[in-house]
Amino acid sequence: ATSGVLGMVVGMAVKDIIANVFSGIILNFERPFTVGDKIKINTVTGIVKDITWRTTRVESSDGHMVSLANGKVTEAFMENYSQAPNGVLDEVHFYTPPTVDPKVAIPIIMKAVEIFGTEVTGYNPKVNYKGIINVNGDWVADFAGTYRLAVAGRKSDAKENICLYVREAFIKQGIPLIPTDETFQTSESMPLQAKNVNLSKDK
Which of 172, 200, 166 is nearest to 184 (CA)? Predict the structure, then answer.
């Protein structure tokens, strides 16, 4: 009986090893990601550091090295933030008092998305005036800029640069911005500082 249980355990272990090796072959053949890519596998997000026949090693966002069995990787939901053949669509909203003239606000936002959001050939950034909406109990004019970036990892930097550019230009035009929880937030707390972004870029 003992030998039977031992044989079953060994058999299951060998089965897992074979499954992981076979999955490693599939990963190396199909290449849904490569070393250096930023990916998300289930709840793990990080940079791929190594792909062996048995495991995929990912350095997570918090700095930990995570080893994932290839058999689990091939079955998991996976996103590759470093591969986007047609770019990654993103959008940023700006809220102003309802009295602001769209003919003044739109060209400023358009210039910002053209400078910082033109990364994909064949797609032109655009700005839409969404009208007057209610946000957190306040009536505001809603302007939305949409653009495509080469990879998802560029979203944070691009949005911050666009926001900083628009803020500086709006200040010069005397246009108030209405910050909300939904938009115009960067890695730092309000008020935003101009950093290295300035209106000289449009000259």
Answer: 166
Contact in structure between 150 and 84 (CB atoms under 8 Å): yes
The token pair that represents 85 in the structure block: 């053949």
What's this model's pTM, rounded to 2 decimal places? 0.61
List pLDDT tens digits, range 161-190: 999 999 999 999 999 998 765 444 433 333
Looking at residue 185, its amino acid is Q
Phi, psi of 11 (to 5 degrees): -60, -40
Give buried/exposed letters for 48-63 (b at 16+ CB in 10 A, else e).
Answer: beebeebbbbbeeeee
CA distance 150 to 155: 9
Do the Cβ atoms of 35 and 49 come closer than 8 Å? yes
SS3 call for 180: coil
Residue 28, CB-side half-sphere exposure with 13 Å CA sphere: 13
Helical residues (DSSP H) of 36-192, grouped into ranges: 70-75, 102-116, 155-173
The sheet with strand 88-96 has its strands ordered as 88-96, 138-149, 126-135
CA–CA–CA angle 39, 44, 49 (5° rounding): 55
